Amino acid sequence: MSDASPTSSTPKSRTPGPDDPVPGVAHVVLVMSGKGGVGKSTTATNLALALQRAGFRTGLLDADIYGPSIPTMLGVTGRPVSTDGKTIEPLERFGLKLMSIGFLLEDPKAAVIWRGPMLHGALQQFLKDVAWGTLDFLVLDLPPGTGDVALSLSQRLGVTGAVMVTTPQPVATDDVYKAVSMCRKVNIPLLGVVENMSWFVDTAGVRHELFGKGGGQAVADFAEAPLLAQVPIDQSVREWGDKGTPVVQAAPDSPAATAFKTLADALVEVVTARADALGDDAGPVIDRSGGSGGRRRLPVTK
Question: Helices (H) and strands (E) in the chain — how many of each?
Answer without folding.
Answer: 9, 12
